[in-house]
Write a structure and sequence with these properties.
The chain has 279 residues and is of the alpha/beta class. 29% of the residues lie in helices and 29% in strands. The protein has 7 helices and 15 strands. The protein has a 5-stranded parallel beta sheet, with helices on both faces. The radius of gyration is 20 Å and the shape is globular. The two termini are 32 Å apart.
């Protein structure tokens, strides 16, 4: 293999409000994964989002409980960061949560959507995490789906974790959307929406009968819609699960969603390809 064929070292951002935990995790990662380059450290969730936006790492280690913005809320914002100028939307870092509370962790994280590290970080568990991350990053470089690509959407995991962190706060999802249809404003029932597609300024709301526009971006809708009902399949697209008629692959190998009651085909970006395993 020539030098030009050598893959770049994987890059990571660490976020934990405890300095000693960051130092310990950095030291343990150096033992089990010496090729990993820690490009930045953050002391809270807001810093974590800023650091990730600046460095665009391959991996983000997020403490679940941080001041200002929890690790879960930081992950939501990171998942919706816009692509770098001149790049497509394929960039989405692998998320690893750091937690002292394994009651939040094991069942949800073992789904494979995100990995986790329990405090204090143990060498054996970090070795498993490093192995999983290497496999996923290698699959990305080859343009393939990861061997353990998750069947559960990332936003579902984040909603579950948020509910466990705030058990008294029941989520309230959108039921109606006020949208522009031609020159009129109409109330559109969320249950009737087949999909949402955003461009730079507007989001198109598509039902079987109506095409409407709203000024709300996908990154806001993701948090306001029931993640069991609407899956994000692309940085700019949410689709009603009940409206999915089938999934095929095009000549580039990309997954394409067919929608019941509408001729439009929706592209699935590789970051969300695990939703349709086996296709």
């Amino acid at each position: 293999m020539s030098d030009t064929d050598t893959p770049a070292r994987p890059r990571a951002v660490l976020a934990d409000d405890e300095r000693l935990m960051r130092e310990q995790l950095r030291a343990r990662l150096a033992e089990v994964w010496p090729e990993l380059d820690i490009v930045a450290e953050a002391k809270n969730g807001l810093e974590a989002v800023d650091m990730v936006a600046q460095h665009r790492p391959d991996i983000v280690f997020l403490d679940i409980r941080m001041p200002g913005l929890t690790g879960v809320d930081a992950a939501r914002q990171i998942a919706q960061l816009p692509p770098r100028e001149g790049h497509d939307d394929e960039w989405l870092p692998e998320i690893v949560f750091i937690t002292a509370y394994d009651q939040y962790a094991v069942e949800a994280f073992e789904q494979g959507v995100a990995d986790y590290v329990l405090k204090p970080a143990e060498r054996e568990r970090l070795q498993l995490t490093a192995l999983r991350l290497r496999q996923r990053l290698d699959a990305r470089r080859r343009g393939e789906d990861a061997p353990d690509a998750p069947a559960q959407p990332l936003q579902q995991l984040l909603h579950q974790l948020s509910a466990r962190l705030n058990p008294g706060a029941a989520p309230r999802y959108l039921q109606w959307i006020q949208a522009n249809v031609g020159s009129t404003i109409q109330m559109v029932a969320v249950d009737e929406v087949l999909f949402f597609v955003s461009d730079e300024k507007y989001t198109r709301v598509q039902t079987a009968q109506v095409e409407a526009l709203i000024r709300k971006p996908i990154k806001e809708l993701v948090d306001e819609l029931d993640p069991q009902q609407f899956w994000q399949i692309h940085r700019s697209t949410l689709v009603n699960v009940k409206a999915i008629a089938g999934v095929t692959r095009d000549f580039r190998g990309r997954q394409i969603v067919s929608v019941r009651g509408h001729p439009e085909k929706l592209e699935v970006s590789r970051s969300y390809a695990g939703l349709f395993k086996g296709m």
